[in-house]
Design a protein that fits this description.
By secondary structure, the chain is mainly alpha-helical. α3 runs antiparallel to α4, α4 runs antiparallel to α5 and α7 packs parallel to α9. The radius of gyration is 51 Å and the shape is elongated. The chain starts with a helix and ends with a helix.
Length: 206
């Protein structure tokens, strides 16, 4: 019996420590894992700047482009105002019978203001200014070019009548008659056609 009891006691003495050690290990393991996680946790990383982030910086010049387009629009508006003032000045000279000055302004207008809205009107009045200044050949040339280039302009019937007037004054009655008949046919309801009929009748009587 003693030997059995002693054996059991010996076994108890030899088996107790491993159980205690296992319990200790089970309690220690979490703290060691935590410490490992603390040791192995990656430090915070600042993401690198992407290409489109760096490319966004030059957006500032957009304001410069807008400013440039604004200046361009202002310059165009100023040019249009200047063209209008020049056109009005030429008509004033024409009304005041200052024909050479009016002709010069009207003749040089297209080169100074190539995109102006008054180009058709300018060419019509240039022909009228030549006729008023008794420069009939120039008047015929300018008005023929006008009727060809600006065929839909409301002043075309008047230009055609003026061509006939100048042809008559140059002594070419047949050319004047042809021009007036063409005017009456193309624009029968116009005031210019009505006047052309009267001029044709006077031409026959003469």
């Amino acid at each position: 019996m003693r030997s059995t009891t002693g054996t059991r006691a010996a076994l108890a003495d030899t088996t107790a420590p491993p159980v205690f050690v296992a319990i200790r290990r089970s309690h220690v393991a979490p703290s060691s894992d935590t410490s490992m996680r603390r040791l192995t946790a990656p430090p915070p990383v600042t993401p690198p700047r992407r290409a489109h982030d760096t490319a966004a910086a030059p957006a500032a010049p957009a304001a410069d482009n807008g400013e440039a387009s604004g200046k361009s629009a202002d310059a165009k508006a100023d040019k249009a105002d200047e063209a209008g003032q020049t056109y009005d000045r030429a008509l004033t000279l024409l009304r005041n019978r200052e024909f050479p000055k009016a002709i010069w302004l009207l003749k040089t207008f297209p080169d100074k203001y190539p995109g102006a809205s008054q180009l058709g009107d300018v060419q019509y009045w240039l022909g009228m200014a030549y006729a008023a200044d008794h420069q009939c050949k120039q008047a015929v040339t300018v008005h023929m070019d006008f009727t060809s280039k600006y065929a839909n302009h409301p002043k075309v019937p008047d230009a055609m009548r003026n061509i006939g007037n100048c042809q008559r004054d140059l002594g070419d009655a047949n050319a004047a008659r042809t021009t007036w008949n063409k005017l009456i046919k193309q624009f029968p309801g116009s005031d210019a056609a009505g006047k052309a009929k009267q001029q044709l009748a006077a031409l026959k009587e003469g």
